[in-house]
Amino acid sequence: MNLELLESEIEANVPGCRLEIIPNPSPSAQHSLLINPEHALTIAEFLRDAAHLRFDYCSNVTGIDWPAPESSGKIKLKEMGDGMEQDVEEEIKIQDAGYLEVVYHLYSMEKKHGPVTLRMRTEDRAERVHLPSLTPVWRSADFQEREIFDLYGVVFDGHPDLRRILMWDEFEDHPMRKDYREPDDYEYEPTAHDEVLRKAKQHHSTIV
Amino acid sequence: MTTNTPLPPTAHLSPKPSINSGGTQLLEVSMGPQHPSTHGVFRMDVVLDGERVIKLKPIFGYLHRNHEKIAEDETYLGSMPYTDRLDYFCSITNNWAYALAVETLAGIQVPERAEYLRVITGELTRLQNHACLIGFLTQDMGASGTPLMYAFREREKILDLFEALTGARMMCNYMRFGGCRVDLPAGWLQQAKEVVEAFPRFLDEYESLLASNEILMSRTQGVGVLSKELAVNAGITGPMLRASGVNYDLRKVDKYGIYDRFTFRVPLGDHGDVYDRYMIRLLEMRESVKILQQAMRDIPDGPIMDAKTKIRGFRPKAGEAYGRIEAPKGELGFYLISDGSPNPYRYRVRPPSLINLTVLEDMCLGQNVADVVIILGSVDIVMGEVDR
């Protein structure tokens, strides 16, 4: 599939959309299309319904976490020392927001071609993590988007049933994020030693 | 027959059964585990109107151990044995899918003999997976164990072959990127030929025993119908898709490995019901036997590993690749992103079992509660792959 051709075709059919080809330097040469979230649904519908494309099958949906690399910089501070104001340089760590990415692999069962890889990016990793759900276009994204919501925290607007799928409902973190820290002790549920012992004693006193 | 009022979207979470307009009380049941391969790790929240299913949500995640996260902390080779544990009935095809993704990512060529070994072991895996499935399915219908034992008898013969070849019966860990781990031991090919030669007899036996059995037909025909359009849109793959009449087999479409060299047909169903899904597996086994006979006839001598491939300390160039194969349960894909380091930056499994469950509710709506058991059985799920 010629990605340049596809790009210009989408741009002609979906007014106002911005596309970018993300090159893939590896021998697989599976390049991908970065699409903007506002037009994602229209683009998806076009890819699915256009008679010569017919990407009716969304095979794989993947979440990826791209935290920005930590960089260090220097800032100048004024500090009081020896009764005088001095200029001091202090090293600080700067962490940019980074972003979360969702990748869709599309194939056509009717025309037997593919893959076309679509990517969408959130604005950051903290607050603005909303992306449109493509489940209304391809039902196969249903569980996979729930998984990404669960493990990465991307909120898919328009998903019919966005709930946690693998982790339990009370779990609060997103374990697939790169900065996720495992708990030191997995047995975080307190066992009621004293309570249990007291009850056991009471029980024994009645039978002894 | 009563009419149903539509349920609120959160009805399956509410513990209180509601009264519908017809006056019958809806019953919410937490159903399962009942399938032999879902012991304790899968259930369904079912809302019933009498015996009829009006809502169903599959609940899983109990077996989740974050396979993908572990693989991102491992080297590329290091996660190969973990792939065995995904679909623990088909460890060899899991190896194959992962190996294929890594080979696509790094541009590795596989020697001729290794390609044949992959086809032979992969198709043997398909035989024993489908044999298990039809055994389980008849067990689900209440055929108290005899057909299951017949299926397991055949599976054992194949597992014996796997044990002789790889040292393990289920967690075979046979493939490496660039080829296969070991070559065939002396006498193995002859033994395998005998097993494959005898296999159609088992299929004949099974078909004459069950395929036109009246009880089996009345329990499965017209039950759990999945339409072509929904199957495609929901990303259903494998025998389940083909039972709905969609001609899509990656061995024909992608022709990965050396599948373009073998003559075989792709069996298709007409109705997309449980019976079709059952028959498709029987028919696919016959095709696998054909492939096996051709592969075992043509296998050349030669190396089984690409000598140039560096397995230990393997560091592919930065980039990404999606590789997929036709696993016995459907499309098994691996999506890998490399940042040039020894471990993958992102390692994603596209599991057929999980995505085939998407339409479980659609297939069960309006059916009797007893049919749910069979419909789930015909999906062919393994929880190691659903939860990962």
Describe the fold and architecture.
The complex is a heterodimer of chains A (208) and B (388). With 208 residues, chain A is an alpha/beta fold. Chain A is built from four helices and nine strands, in the order αββαββββββαβα. Chain A folds into two domains: 3-66 and 99-170, 2-Layer Sandwich (Beta Polymerase, domain 2); 178-208, no CATH class. Chain A starts with a helix and ends with a helix. The longest helix of chain B has 29 residues, at 112-140. Chain B is globular and about 70 Å long. Chain B has a single domain (67-386), classed as Cytochrome-c3 Hydrogenase, chain B. Chain B is an alpha+beta fold. The two termini of chain B are 42 Å apart. At the A-B interface, strand 3 and helix 3 of A face helix 3, helix 8, strand 6, strand 7 and strand 8 of B.
Which strand order does the major sheet of chain A show? 1-2-7-6-3
In angstroms, what is the radius of gyration of chain A? 26 Å
Strand order of the largest sheet of chain B: 1-2-3
Main beta sheet of chain B, described? 3 strands, antiparallel
Question: What is the chain-wise order of helices and strands of chain A?
Answer: HEEHEEEEEEHEH
- CATH homologous superfamily (4th level) name of the largest domain in chain A: NADH:ubiquinone oxidoreductase Nqo5 subunit
CATH architecture of chain B: Orthogonal Bundle
Largest sheet of chain A: 5 strands, mixed
The CATH superfamily of chain B is Cytochrome-c3 Hydrogenase, chain B
Low-confidence sequence ranges of chain B: 11-17
Give the count of structural domains of chain B: 1
Radius of gyration computed on alpha carbons of chain B:
22 Å
Secondary-structure element series of chain B? EEEHHHHHEEHHHHHHEEEHHHH
GO molecular function (chain B): NAD binding; NADH dehydrogenase (quinone) (non-electrogenic) activity; quinone binding
Region (Disordered) (chain B): 1-34
Subcellular location (chain B): Cell membrane
Subunit structure (chain B): NDH-1 is composed of 14 different subunits. Subunits NuoB, C, D, E, F, and G constitute the peripheral sector of the complex.
